[in-house]
Specification:
Layout: E1 16-21, E2 30-37, E3 41-46, E4 55-61, E5 74-86, E6 91-101, H1 105-116
Antiparallel strand pairs: 1-2, 1-4, 2-3, 3-6, 4-5, 5-6
């Protein structure tokens, strides 16, 4: 098994995500789940093959901590950096590099991932 040298470290989490293309792209949004996630990017499984080097807006929905909690949505400007077919999952895996977080999005994501890190199987 390869040693993960990327910083910040990725967490295996399956959060809801929407990838919204700019109007000029004339493409529908993609709704999927993350495969893994870090403060610098995400890997997403989807049925859609997308062009790389495209700038997109990502809407990330971390799970709520308790029933009745208001759903947080983290808005991030990102770049699609790869799209490969994952035969074992019968879908495409696309990579996102986060560029800019809206408002307190980076801190919200950091807090959520820090809370996940103590759970077994979350750190890669």
């Amino acid at each position: 098994m390869a040693i993960e040298n990327r910083e910040p470290r990725r967490r295996v989490v399956h959060w809801r995500i929407a990838i919204v293309f700019d109007e000029a792209e004339k493409r529908p949004s993609i709704h999927a789940h993350t495969h893994d996630l870090s403060l610098s990017g995400a890997s997403v499984h989807t049925d859609h093959n997308v062009a790389t080097n495209t700038l997109v807006t990502v809407l990330l929905s971390p799970p709520v901590a308790y029933e009745g909690e208001r759903q947080k949505v983290i808005e991030i400007r990102a770049k699609l950096v790869y799209s490969v077919y994952s035969g074992s999952n019968f879908c495409f895996r696309i990579g996102l590099n986060f560029i800019k977080f809206k408002n307190e999005g980076l801190q919200i994501l950091k807090d959520m991932l820090d809370n996940q890190s103590d759970s077994p199987g979350y750190t890669r």
